[in-house]
Amino acid sequence: MITTAAPTEDPGKSHVHNVALTRRRTLLAGSVLGGTALLLTGCSDGSGPGGGRQDADAAADERLRAQAARDSSALLARYDATLAAHPGLGERLRPLRAEVARHAAAFGVSPAPGASGAPSARPGTGASPAASSPGPSAPTVPPDEKQARTDLAAAERRTADARATALVSAAPELARLLASVAAAGAAHAYLLTLAEDGA
Q1: Predicted confidence (pLDDT) per residue in 108-130, tens digit
Q2: N or C: which end of the chain has fewer CB within 10 A?
């Protein structure tokens, strides 16, 4: 028995079908790539729908940075007042004070070495005027050395807690800085407590 193969489709039809599919794929790929290019262009220049959000985030970060600068200035003023009232604590407090001054500089404040007044903002850093305006008069320091260290440890703890709270809403770079400075402040509070116990 002789069998014959089933008739195949007309080769011309198959070619037309393949060309139509290829054209559809090309058009689809072109529209996807074109849309992606437009999306990327819109994101990169900040003029798209998210531009206002980026500006709001930047403004919020600037406020957090300015608050951190004010906190560092206040803490630095407390160290200076304590050192002025109790010069005998200089060996213990000066290294911690130097680190607080570095933290202040990281937030855009340039403290004068050993000054008891509030530090001023560095030119061109964009620190807010509130960060550079002089704060209230120098903090009151207890006449008792141990109580003065206790007050300083409490100020370090409060500042570290405020920074740990603020970092949750900060942009990644500022959040890392806040976390690092908060950890250092907690360590300072601990060291001041050890100094109390050793007295």
Answers
A1: 887 555 544 444 434 334 443 33
A2: N
